Amino acid sequence: MKQVVLKTFVNQGLETSLSLSDQVKTLSQDFATRAAVHDKDGSFPFENFTALHQAGLLGLTIPRDLGGQDLGLASICQVIEGIACGDASTALVLNMHYLQHAKANRSRSWHPEVYKKVCREAIANSALINAARVEPELGTPARGGLPATTAQKTAQGWLLSGHKQYTTGSPILRYFVVWAKKTEDEPQVGNFLVPRDLPGVQIVETWDHLGMRATGSHDLILENVLIPDEYALDIRPVSIKSPPDPMTAVWNSLTLSALYLGVATAARDWLIEYLGDRTPSNLGTPLASLSRFQTAVGEIEALLYANRILIYNLAQELDKSESAPNVELQAQAVKYLSTTNSIRAVEIGLQLIGNPGLTRKNPLERHYRDVLCSRIHTPQNDVICQSLGKAALDM
User: Domain Acyl-CoA dehydrogenase/oxidase C-terminal, which positions (predicted)?
Assistant: First the structure.
């Protein structure tokens, strides 16, 4: 990990200057002590984001001239992997924040003063941001279709109304990037920046899923929310597709791959400790001494090693140059392979130890529920494989 020394990390009243890798390790260990409680209750880990803010980790994808670190893809993947080892839900919310800032940093559609304001608030006041795109009727926008959420132009600004689902981090987000359509004869769509403290913004607590239970991915309801003109980020007719930015999709695929690698690594770490401690009375020696268990752990190690090679080789290559051909397809292939490997790695551990692996007091069952969520994120496996197949067949 790139050795960046951020502002001092506050730990029990003591201030110390730590490298980024040391900060991530310290935070991850702390987050792990509360992860099971937040998972069980479905509660949001606000204290984790206070710690991330104090450590200066909310500005890693913000430009340096606005107070951030403007780190590259490989470093961000390592941060997300490290945080996910401690608490996957915290890592997912943080990752979405990073992705929105990385995308905005590359974009030319934001009003300059609005962009500066959002960046400075993130650093000074831990103001987090994420997109709000999925809707009850539409489903995921990646599958096509237009949003039902509307944006009406008025003399005072834009008036937004609609219903969004799965808004990850909603309990703590300061800003929502809302995908909506204009109320005009010619269909136009765009993204609109919505601060959470405006009249008409409501969070309905609906998130109660199998995994990633502490992400607070609740519903966002907008009822005639008035935003300034300059908070319209990118509006264009449906017939004119926005210019593709392959690096936005690449960052999404690789950082999510790193996140679920972190989950699988945490599962592996717990399994190794369990096998070293568990000594059945009929055996008289730890399970770790048996060849069957050694072989299974070896398979896990191979899967995780492959993930690291896949993720970080491509991330480091892109940090040097973004001009690699078919880079988006490469990143999608990495996501498909690495998340499949991560799921398999955790499943091997479950099969190896049986009932203890599915007992709620042990973290392995939580890691399994969390790692399964890797299949849900865009792009999903069928889309990835179809894209790869069409490219191979030149279709």
Answer: 254-391
